[in-house]
Amino acid sequence: MSTTAIFPGTPARAGMYESFYLRAVSPVEPIGVWIRHTVHKRPGRRATGSVWCTVFDAGATPFMDKVTSELLTAPADGWISVAGSQMDAGGAEGGCGAARWSLRFATEEPQLRHLTPDWLYRMPLPRTKLTSPAPAARFDGVVEIEDRDPIDLHGWPGMVGHNWGSEHAERWIWLHGVAFEGEPDAWVDVALGRIRLAGRMTPWVANGALSLDGRRHRVGGLRARGVQVRESVEGCVLALGGEDGLSLQVRVAAPAGCSAGWRYADPDGGEHDVVNCSIAAVEMDLQARTMPRRTLRSPHGGAYELGMRERDHGVPIAPFSDG
Known about the structure:
Layout: E1 16-25, E2 31-41, E3 48-57, E4 63-69, E5 72-73, E6 80-82, E7 85-88, E8 91-96, E9 99-106, E10 112-113, E11 128-145, E12 151-152, E13 156-165, E14 171-177, E15 187-194, E16 196-197, E17 200-201, E18 205-212, E19 215-220, E20 228-232, E21 235-241, E22 247-253, E23 260-265, E24 271-288, E25 291-308
Antiparallel strand pairs: 1-2, 1-13, 2-3, 3-4, 5-6, 6-7, 7-8, 8-9, 9-11, 10-11, 11-12, 11-13, 14-15, 14-25, 15-18, 16-17, 18-19, 20-21, 21-22, 22-24, 23-24, 24-25
């Protein structure tokens, strides 16, 4: 699970952001953990780091906390360290505000590089690059929050992700799914985005993969056609294509009142509202030339994130800024 922080090599005059993150979800009940270590750098300024913790629990408002600090490094034996909280290829240790954690993760999955062809990682567009060092992982450890019982993550499925860039997409969706009924090793990890070029919005472009029966199927890509999206903060309906004639019909639903809202900042000063539910229900109808038609269901193993410009979506935004 090799990956490298981008921010230490960023020129002083440039702006950028970067994020190392993990999600884990209980295999038996709708409880999920979302931890991020982020970098925010405006052009010509020093980079700052932040640590974010969100805990999702069906029927309750998500717990959210965050700390920002100039104590930011990329350790030789790790990925990122912010104010003493560290994330590396084996786990995450640290805390922010009322939350503390000590987590370990393991995976047998190779890294997923969402963008294809690979030369897109070297080009100015898209301005956001992303990978999943562990698109499927198993977690052990504990998350402790003041005035709550400790959360024991023994054997929880989830993932580890990494993204960076000079500007967020104009609008985006990120979907990750694990804990599918009868298919414990299956997972899906797809990012969809629209960008603004010459004053116009591009169509949706999807990039990612579906893993099923030990085989990874590429989803989307620059040449993929027929991407269809209906989205809101409550969930989405997607029609996606992929290699080997893969066809995916995806339905995602976030339980009412269980989504977290944040405000993400671009290096140039722009902002997006971001709504995330990491205990979403996912259902996928799929078929391809290499497999018969199947339906996969995960009652609460999905992470659904929608990034947008509008502010009237109805999800409360956490009372702390980005960067």
